[in-house]
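Structure ticket #2291
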Amino acid sequence: MSATISDRYRFPAEWEPHEATWIGWPHQTSDWPGRMGPIPWVFAEFVRALSPGERVRILVQSSAARARATDILKRAGVDGALLDWFDIPTNRNWTRDAGPIFVRSGRGRRGQVVVADFGFTAWAKYGNWRKDDAVAGMAARRLRLPRIVPEHQGRRVVLEGGAIDLNGRGALLTTEECLLDPKVQVRNPGFDRGDYEAVFQRYLGVTHTIWLGRGVAGDDTHGHVDDLCRFVNPTTVLLAQEANAKDANYRPLQENRERLQGVRLERGARVHMIPLPMPEPVVFEGQRLPASYANFYIGNAAVLVPTFNCPQDRQALGIVAECFPSRRVIGIHARDLIWGLGAIHCLTQQQPAP
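Resolution: structure written out below.
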C-alpha cells in the first residue's frame, strides 16, 4: 500500500530521543568467514554500552539462539531487564539496511511513530534476502505500530538505511554511486535523481537532498553514505577525509568536500564541515575493507565509534566527543567486525521515542 496514515512523514535525526535501538544477533558465518568467534562478543560490547540509555531490541533466529545470546550478554555484564527479544528470522544481521525504518506521521515533532517498510534486496548483489525483506513488516505487527509501504511509479521502493543520513529538519545526504549508477547494484531500475527526491520528500519529510559522489574503498554496498559523511546536528556534518594523496580514498573524499562547499540547507543555512580522519587501510587476505570512523552510532546516552588499532583512533574519538559533549563517546574495536564489510552503524537502527 502507499501512504495512508498521513500525507506528511518525518525521519527523526539519530540524536533525537530513542525508545530503543534494534540489532540482529549475529548468526551468518559467511559474513565473517573464519573470524566469527569474536563477533558475538563485539555485539555484547555495544549492547552493554547502549542499554543504560535505552532499550535494546534483539532479533534472533530461535529460542535456542536467544539462550546462547543471553548467556554471552550476561557474561559481558549486560542487564537482561533492559533487553527485548524478537524471534524473527533473518538472512543477515545488517539491521540498518534490512530492519524497520521508523518515521513520524503528521505535523510537528510529536507525530505517531510509523514503520516505513522499504524493500530490501541485499544491496542488489546477493540472492538470499527474502527473510530480511520481511523483518520490517513483522516488527510492525509485533510492536502494533502502523506500517506504510513506500511506493513510486506503481512499485515498492527499495532503500537501505545506510544509503541515507538525515538532520531531522528536511536535509538528506546520499551518494550518486549508490542510488544513481545505472549498471552496478541497481536498487530501483529506471529511477533518476528526481524520482528519489520525490520518494524522500513524501516518505521522509525531505526538502533538501544533498548528492555526494562516491563512497569509500572496499564498500560492498557500492557507496553507502554512512561510511563517509554524517550529520551531528542540524547544520554540521563530520566528513571523512583521507590525508594520504596516494590512497584510493583521497580523491573521492576530496570531491565530496568540494560538493558540500556552498550547499544550502533549510532557511538558507550553510553546511558546517568538520573533517574526520580515515584510519590506516585495513586489509585482510588481500582485500581492502571499508574501515571508517564515520560509521558511528548515536545512542541516547552514548555514541559508539569503531576503532581500528591505529594512531588515528584517538583523534577520531576526540572529534566525535566534541560534537556530543552530553554523551559518552565509546570506542568499539572493529577490526574483526569490518571483515563483514560493515561496522556499528550498519548493524543498528534507532526507534524514536513515542
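Closing remark: Residues 10 and 205 are 4 Å apart (CA to CA).
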